[in-house]
Amino acid sequence: MTSATRGRQIGLGGWSGRTIVALVLAIFVLFFAIPIVWLLLATTKSARGLIVRHPFAPGGLGDLRANWHQLFAFQDGAVTTWVANSALYAVGALAITLVAGIPAGYALALTRFRFRRLLLIVTLIVMLIPNTALVLPIFLELNAVGLIGSPLSVILPMSFFPFGVYLAYIYFATSIPRDLLAAARIDGCSELQVFTRVALPLAAPIVALVAFFSFVQSWNNFFLPFVMLPASDGYPIQVGLTSLLASTPAFNPSSAGMQSVQLPTLALATVISVLPVLIVFLFAQRFLVAGMTAGGTKE
Question: So where does this one cross the membrane (predicted)?
Fold first, then answer.
């Protein structure tokens, strides 16, 4: 076999491999992109236009405004309350997660105390337990102290984020120079000062990563608020979507009436429910990339 023939075979094999990869990626892009494009276009149509027009034909601004007004007039502005509740729960849980989780990861990685290894193992085990499996015992605990129905019944459980503790542990164990921390201690810094003045500023990427994951998990949480909050005025937007769904005649024919919601309005509510996560992702993208690559190299 000549070198030219071998080169053509290698080139053909490489071309075929790239073609297959590109084809698979294109299929996945279409699989995920088509529903998103349809959802965005559905918000610009009327209920009749959504049925009779082409699925990917754009609507008009007039229909979009009508859907917007119908959505925010639902139950005297309940959607605004739901979005505000989601922000309260997500930001409250995020604050507690950062205050508790980042120092916990630092302590597990860089300090020595009794039962440290046991605590780390328990953290890893809890990470593997589905969140829904913990809802019932958490409900019983919060009911015993009278917190059911209050914002704390959602914020406190959502702030329990062992995955964030583990991310912080990995970062502090692999990316913080021990000599730098030792020098700070020699200069007279207490352990708290070493953490707040030396380790924490260096850990900005992992703090951003933990904050993003915590915010997304809290914002998208459905089952916990659904169980803990009996009244509609305490719902987050994810739970509120079920009320909108129940008021949509296409899914619940008995809901036809003054407070009924049309399919384009429901599509608009869905877009609004995911918009804050998208905005946070776009603004935090640079920090997320730095956080995902943090801890990839050892000291």
Answer: 20-41, 87-111, 118-140, 152-173, 194-215, 263-284
166 CB contacts (<8 Å, ≥6 apart)? 105, 123, 124, 127
Residue 147 in contact with residue 154, Cβ under 8 Å?
no
The pLDDT of 124-130, averaged and rounded, is 88
Question: What count of residues does the chain have?
Answer: 299
- Contact partners, residue 243, CB within 8 Å, separation at least 6: 75, 78, 232, 235
**In sequence order, which ranges of 129-203 are alpha helices (DSSP H)?**
131-144, 152-158, 162-175, 178-186, 191-193, 200-202
Q: Indicate the domain borders of the chain.
A: 3-66, 71-293
Distance of alpha carbon 235 from alpha carbon 86, whole angstroms: 8
Quote the CA–CA distance of 226 and 181 in Å, as a whole number. Answer: 45
Q: What share of residues in the chain are helix, strand, coil (percent, to 5)?
A: 75, 0, 25
Give 290's pLDDT tier (boundaries 50, 70, 90). Answer: low
Instruction: Report the CATH superfamily, name and number, of domain 71-293.
Output: MetI-like (1.10.3720.10)
Distance between first and last Cα of the chain: 49
Query: What is the spatial distance between Cα 243 and Cα 260, in angstroms, rounded to a whole number?
Result: 10
Helix or strand holding residue 208 (H, E): helix 204-220
**Burial bucket for residue 287 (CB in 10 Å: 0-12, 13-18, 19+):** middle
pLDDT digits (tens, 9 = 90+) for 199-208: 998 888 899 8
pLDDT for the residue numbered 293: 60
Q: Could you read off the pLDDT of 27-77 as tens digits, one per residue?
A: 888 888 888 999 999 999 998 898 888 888 888 899 999 999 999 999 888
